[in-house]
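>> Question from a student workshop board

For tomorrow's exercise we were told to take the sequence and the ligand below, predict the bound structure, and bring the output to class. My setup keeps failing. Could a helper post the expected result so I can at least see what it should look like? The ligand is zinc ion.
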Amino acid sequence: MAAAESDGDPPSASRSEFLNFSAKDTASRWLAAADLQQEVYRHLAVYVPRILCLGPSGGSGSREEQREEQREELACQLLLLAPMEWLLLGEEPAAGLAQLQENNQPSPLCGHVFKVGEPTYSCRECAADPTCVLCMQCFLGSVHKEHRYRMTTSGGGGFCDCGDAEAWKKGPYCQKHTPTDNSRDTEEDPVAQLPADMVARGYSIFSIVLKYAVDLLTWDQEEQLPAGLEPLNTSRQSKPLRVQVMHSSVVAHQCFALKALSWLGQIIQYSDGLRRILCQVGLQKGAEGENSSLVDRLMLNDSKMWKGARNIYHQLLMNSLLMDLKYKKIFAIQFAKSYERLQSDYVKDDHDREFSITDLSVQIFTVPSLARMLMVEENLMTTIIRTFVDHLRHRDLQGRFQFDRYTAQQAFKFGRVQSLIGDLKYVLISRPSEWSDQLRMKFLEGLDAFLELLKCMQGMDPVVRQVGQHIEMEPEWEAAFTLQMKLTHIISMIQEWCSADECVLIEAYRKCLGALSHCYSGLPDGEQPISLSLAGHSVETFRYQVSQDKVSIHLPVCRLLAGLHVLLSRTEVASRFPEQLPLGELSPPLLIELPLRCLVLCAQVHAGMWRRNGFSLINQIYYYHNVKCRVEMFDKDIIMLQAGASMMDPNHFLMIVLSRFELFHIFSSADVRKRYREANKDVVQQNNTLIEEMLHLIIMVVGERYVAGVGQVEPFDEVRREIIHQLSIRPMAHSELVKALPENGNKETGLERVIDTVASFKKPGVTGRGLYELRPEWNKYFNLYFHHYSRADQSKAEEAQRKLRRQNGEDTALPPPLLPPLCPLFASLVNLLQCDVLLAVEGAVLQWAVEPSGGGWTESMLQRVLHLVGMALLEEQQQLENSSGDDDVTFNYTCKITRPGEAPSTSGSVLALLESLQNAPHLEVHKDMITWILKMVTNIKTMRERTSSTSTITISPGQGPEETVRDKDKAERKRKAEMARLRREKIMAQMSEMQKHFINENKELFQQSLEELEASTSATAENRRVGRAERRQLVTCILCQEEQEVRGHGRAMVLAAFVQRSTVLSKNRRRNLPDPERHDPLFMHPDLSLGIHTASCGHIMHATCWQRYFEAVQLKEQRRQQRLRGHTSYDVENGEFLCPLCECLSNTVIPLLPHTPSPDHSVNHSCLEEWLETTNQQIALLHSANKKQSDAGGAEPVVPEGFRVDFTPQNPFSSSISEMITTFSMSTYKVGLKVNPNEQDHRVPVLSWSTCAYTIQSIERFLMDEEKPLFGSLPCRQDDCLSSLTRFSSACWTAAPLKTVHTHFFRLFAALVPDSQVENTPCILDIDMFHLLVSFIIEHQFKSTHLHLLHLVTVAHLVQILLTSTTEEVCMDQDSGGSEEEELTCQLYDTLRKHLGGVLPEVSSGWQLWRCVKAGVLPFLRAATLFFHYLNSTAPPADLLVAGPGQWEALCSYLSLPSNLLQLHQSQHTQLEWCRHPGVTQTLQGGGVIVRFPRESNRLIELPEDYSVLINQASSFTCPRSGGDKSRAPTLCLVCGSMLCSQSYCCQTEVDGEDVGACTAHTFTCGAGLGLFLRVRESQVLFVAGKTKGCFYPPPYLDDYGETDQGLKRGNPLHLCSERYRKIERLWRQHGIAEVIGHAQEANQTLVAIDWQHL
Ligand SMILES: [Zn+2]
Ligand SMILES: [Zn+2]
Ligand SMILES: [Zn+2]
Ligand SMILES: [Zn+2]
Ligand SMILES: [Zn+2]
Ligand SMILES: [Zn+2]
Ligand SMILES: [Zn+2]
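>> Workshop helper replied:
Here is what the output should look like for this input. Compare the format with yours to find the bug.
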C-alpha cells in the first residue's frame, strides 16, 4: 500500500482512492472484525496522516491553501467519518440521520449557543439569577417580554436557558419550547427509544472515537503515537527522518481528533438517545479508578491544551453533558471533585477564563438544585473558599493578607483568583427554602472556612498617622478594596442564608463571635486601663489613640457579627427568650472598639489631621462610604455601635466615644477649653470639626433605625428612605437613583417597588432625561443628618429644603423627622438622648454659643446640638402619645433640661440657655429651630398635665396658643429673610458672571440659550422686514460697536458665514464625487447630488475688524499648537473661526451689499418670441466678435452694438467691498470644488450662483416639510443670510472678467435655445431648472428680461416634468370635466409624445397630468419667489405669510405668471428642439438617472421601534473584508442605511493618502465628507465631518425612564423616541451637523482626543 512509499512527505490521498473507497463496505468489514477498535485504528493510522499531512492550517491563507483545506475536509468526511456513520446507523447516513431526528423527542431545553454581540434577555422579575438568559427567539415567545426585562449583548459562549425550569421562577418555557404531549418525560431514558443494535453500535463507536480523540489531545510525545496508530512499517527509516514523519503524523492525528469531536457534537444533535450514550461513554470510569473517565482526562489536561482544542471540546461538553439533565448532575460532581486542581491549573495558565474549563462553573453552579447537592455531597462551599485562601499566600506576621506591598505578578495572580469569588456567588445566589441537617452542617462548615478568610482580612493594611513629613510612597490600597468589594455580596448572601434558619443563625452568631474573640486576643490588654469621669459617671477604658496608634479600615469579622446581630434581633428568640442569645462572650466596650476607631479615623481625616498620609487613605475613606462598599462597611460599623450602646450604660458609651475622639478633656474641664481657645488656631479648628463629627455620630447611632431588626421597619422602608433623601437634594433621573442605591447580588436595588409611591415622574422633552420628583407629602421624612449624605449632599439638600419651605410660606426650621420605633434588642438606645453626659455636652455647646465671636464653636456644632435636642423631644412626645398613663413613660427629657447645669458647665439649664439664645442676633439662622424646640417643650408640658388629669390629646407642634405673637414674629422674620435673599441673589449674580466662561462645559445649557436667542430674534425680524427696501440700512459692527450704513462705496461690512458641501438634497448617492480639476459646475444635475450650502449666524462686522480678529485667531492657534498638540474645534488653516459673538462655526464672510435697483433702460420687448430673436442675434454677434478677438490676439474687443447697452462697465463697489466679494467667491470656489484658490479660474462665479441657488432650494424644502409659511417664519439670521447671499451673487460678476461672463451666458442660453456653435450642452433632463434660473437672472442684470428668462425656464421645467412624470398610470374618474389647464396639458404632452416616438407612454387623464405638473412645479415656483424677493427686496404677498392653501395663485401672481402655466408655452419650436437632444430619448429609455418632480425630501432611514431588533441585525452582520468575521463595532449610516465595520483595521481604507476607518471613508461616498451614524453596540450616534472632526450625540432611543443608555450599560429595554430622531434629522437637513461637532469639540478640549478618522 501507499504507506511503503511514505518516506519523506506522506503523499496525499489520491483521486483513485476516493473512487474506489466504499464507506459502506468498510463499515461492514469493521463490524465483522473481532476487535473493532483495532480495525478502526488501523484505518485511521493509514488515512489520517495522508489526508491531513499539512496539519492545522493557520487561519485563512491564500486561495491555494483554502482549496487544500476544502479538499482535506472532503477527504475526512468521505474516507474517515462516513464509515463511522455507516457503522453507527446501519444505513445511508443522510437518510439515517433524518430518521433519527424524526423519531427524536427532544427535551424542552433551547440551548442556543450565543454569538458575540448577540442580544440576550433576562427577566428581572422571574430569572433565578442574572446569569439566566434567553435568546431573542425564545424571549419574543415568552411571557417575560411583558415583564421588566434586561437586555445585554453576549460576549460569546453560554447558552439560552429557555426550558430550564430551575432558571426561571415563572414562565420557563417559550411558546416553541413548551412541552407537549409529544415530548418525553424528563425521567424517561431516551436510550430506550433507540433500536437495541444501534445502542450497542453507538456505545462501541463512540467510545472508540472519544478515546482516540482524548488520547491524542492529551498526547505529549512527539516521537511516538498511541498504540495501534503507528504507521504500518517503520523499519527501513533512519532515525531523524522518522522523527519528522512521526511528528507530522502526530499533528495530523491531533487535527483529526478535533474533527472527530466536532463530528460527535453534530451526531448527537439528532438524537437525545445518542447524546445520552455519549455522556455515558464520556463519564465511564477508566481502569485507573478515580478521575480516569475520558471527560476527566480532558478536564485535567485543559490548561495544557491549545486554545482551539479547548474551544472544541468545551463546545462538545455543552452540547452533551450540560444538555442531558441526568448526566449534568454526574458531570457536576466530577467537576466539583476536580475543582481545586482545575482552579490551580487555571491560575497558572495564561489564557483568559473564557478559554478555561473552569468557566463552565457558571453553567453548573447557578442551577440551584445542583449547587445545593454539590454543597452537601462535595462540600463545595468549603472547597471554593479554601482554594481561594490557599492562593493568597502573601501574609503578615499575624497571618493577615498583605496587599499594600503587592508586586505586579502577585497582583496579576490575585486578578485570576478573583473568579473563585464569582463561583462562590453562584453557589450562594439562591437561598434555600428548606434545610436538611446535612445542608446545615455543610453550610456551617463553609462558614467556618469563610470566617478564616475574613480573619485574614480583619485588620489588614493598617495605617499610622504620619506626622512631620509626608509619606514617601503611597501604599497600594486597591487590592484590599477590590477584595472587599467582591466579597460584599457574598457577605450579604451569607447573612441571608443565616436568616433563613434560626438554628443556623444562632450557631453562625456563635462562630462569628468566636472568630472575633480570636481577633481581639491581639489587643493590648496588659496595659493599665485609664479611668474617665464626667457628669457624675465614671468608666474604665483602654489607653489608645487613633491619631498615634495603628488603625485599620478592614474589619469584616466585626461587621459580619453586626449583620448577624441585627438578624438575631428580628427572630422570635430575641423577643421571647433573649437570655438564650449567645451575647455574653465579649464585653460591649470591646464590641464597639474597632468600629469606633474606624469612624474616628474618618472624622480625623475630615478634620485634616491625616493630610500627610496621602491620597491612598483618602481613597480608602471614600470607598468606605461609597455605595459599592458601605453596606458591609460603614453601615455595619454604625450598627455595631448601636448594638454596643444598647447593651451599655449610655453615659459610659458616650464617655468612651468622647475619649476615642480625643475630645474628652474639652468637656471634662472648662479651663482646657479656654486654654485651647488661645492656643494654635489649627488645633481649635480640628477640635471643632471633631466635635461636629462626634455629634453627628451620636445622631446616627440613635436615629438610624431603617434597618429591619434595628428599627421596626420592613426592608422596602429602607429603600424608600434612601430615595426620599436622594430626591430631597433635587429631582433625579432613574439611572442616578439606581447609582445611589446599593445593588444586591441579583443586581437589583428594589427601587421599582417603591419609587412610584414616593415620587412622580416627569417626562423628558426633546433633550434631557425623565426626572423623578419627590411628592410633597414625603418632605416631612427629610432628615438633614441622613447617614448616607456626604457633606456636599447635606448642604445641597439643606438649601433645597429651606427653599421649598420658604416657597410654601413655612418657617425654615428643619426639625428631625419622626422615627420608627426600635426593636426590643435596641430599645435602650433612646436613653442616649437623655443621659447626663449628653446633656453636659449639649449644655457646653449652648453655653459657648452665647458668645457671638468666640471662635470656639461653629454653627454646624450648634445645629447638631439643636437636632439632638429635637430628637429627644420628639421621643418624649411619642412615648407620651403611645402611653396610657404617665407612669410608664420613662423618658423625661423636658424635666431634665430644666435642671441647672452641673460642673464644669457652670450656668443655667439647657432650657434656660435655649431661651436666651432664641433672640440672640448672631443666631438668626437658627431662630426658627429654637422656636420650634421651645414650642415642643411647651406642648409636652401641656400633654403631661393633661394625661395626668384626663386623657391623651395630641397636640402637634404647629398649633400653639401664642398664635398672634408668632404672626408678628413671622412678619419681622420675613422681612429679614427677604433682605438676606436679595443679598444672596446679588452675590449669585456676581458668581454667575464669573462662571460665564465655563458655559461651554455645559453644552445643553448653551443649546437652550441659543434657542431662546433665536426665538427672540425671529420676533423682531418680523418688524424689521416691513418696508426694508426703502430704508437706509444701518448696521452695527459686533466687534467695535460702531454703526455703519451699508453703501456700495462705503467701508465693507461682512456677515460671518459657513460654506459646506452638502448631499442633503441628493437623489443619487451613488454618483462619485467630481474630479476637482475637470468638473464643470455650470449646469447642476437635477439629482442635486452635490450642492454647496451657505449658512450664517447673522452677526455683522466691519471687514477690517473681522480681518484683524481672524489674524489674531490665527496667531493664537499657532502659539497653541506649539504648546500642545491636538485638534481645535475649528481648522484655522482652512479659514475656520468662531463667530466672535456667538461662537458659531464659520469659515468665511459674506459682504453686505446695498440694494441696487437694476438699470431698466433696455428696450422693452413685447413678447418672449421677439426677445429670443434679439438675443439670438446679439449672441451671434458676440460669437463673431470673440472669434475676431482671438484672431487679432489681444486687440480691443469690438462689442456689438446690440449688446453694448446691456453692459455696465464701471464697478459700482469700493475696493474694500470688492475685496470681500473676492474673499467669499474664493471660499465657495475652494469648498465647492475642493481646490486651491485660483482667481483666474472661469468657474469661480458659477460656484457663487450655485451656492445661492442650492441654499434657497434647501430652505424652501425645509419650510415645506415643516409646514411653515414661505415668508415670515425664517429666523432672522437665515433671512439676513439669504438676502446678502442673493445680493452678493448678483454682484459677483464684477469680480470676473467680462469674457468669462459672456461665455457662461452663451452656454446657459444654449441649453434652452439650442445653438450649434456651443458644444457639450446637456439635455434638459440633465439640468436643474432652478439653478439655471438663478444663474441666468444673476448674469443678466436687467430686470425687463428677467420675466422672459423666468418664462423660458418655467416652460422648460414644465416639459421636464411632463417627460418624467408618467410611468404608472392611476386611473381615476376625474377626467370628465376637462378644464382648460387639463386640455392644454394633454395637448403639450401629446405633442411631446409625437416628437419622441414611443418613448412616452400614453396618458388619457388630463386631470392627472395637470395634477402632476402642478405638484411638480410648485417647489420651483416657491424657490423662485424666495429668490426674487431677496433679489429685488420686494415685500412678500400676504398670502405667503401663512401656510396652507391658496399658495398657488399667490405664487403665480407674485412671479407675474399666468395661473394656468400652460399658457406660457406658445412656441412649440423650442420644445421640439429640446426633445431632439439625443440625451432625452436615451435617458427616458433607461440610459440615465431619471429624477421625478417634485423631488421627494430626503429623510434619515427608518429605525425600528425596538432597539434589540437593531442589535440582532448587527450581530449577524459580518465584516465585508475579512471573510465572515464578526464586526466589532457594527455601525449604521443613518443617511443611506449601510451597515459598516467601524473602528477596525480590517476595514480601513486610504483616502488622500491617509488611513481612515470605515465610517470616515463612507462619508466621502455618502455625504461629501459629512456623516451621521448609529453605533449599534454602543447605542450612540456618531457625527463625522472631514477627517479630523467628529462627536458623539445622544441616540434617539430611550428607556421607559426617558433616558438614553450610551454604551448599553444598564440594559433597560430601549425604544425609539421619534421626536428625538426628528430632531437629529432636522439638524442634518438644516446643515447643522458641523456646527454641533464644533461645539462638542470646543466643550471637550481637555478630554483625551479621539481619533475620529479611525472610526
Ligand atoms: Zn432560546
Ligand atoms: Zn425557547
Ligand atoms: Zn418574567
Ligand atoms: Zn468694526
Ligand atoms: Zn455669530
Ligand atoms: Zn451612507
Ligand atoms: Zn472589517
